[in-house]
Amino acid sequence: MIKFADLYSQYQSIKPQIDAAIAAVIRDAAFISGRYAKVFEGEFSAFLGGSHCIGVGNGTDAIEIAIEALKLPAGSEIIVPANTFIASSEAVTRSGYRVVFADVDPGCYTITADAVLRKLSPRTSAVMAVHLYGHPCDMDALDDVASRHGLQIIEDCAQAHGARYKGRQVGTIGRVATFSFYPGKNLGAFGDAGAIATMDADLAARARKIANHGRIGKYDHEFEGRNSRLDGLQAAVLSAKLPFLCKWTARRVEIAERYTEGLRGIPDLILPVRMPWAYQVYHLFVVRTSRRDALKEYLAARGIECGVHYPIALPRLAAYEYLAQASEAMFANEAAGSLLSLPIGEHLSNADIDEVIDAVSRFFV
Question: Residue 147: which of 116, 177, 102, 169 has the closest Cα?
Answer without folding.
Answer: 116
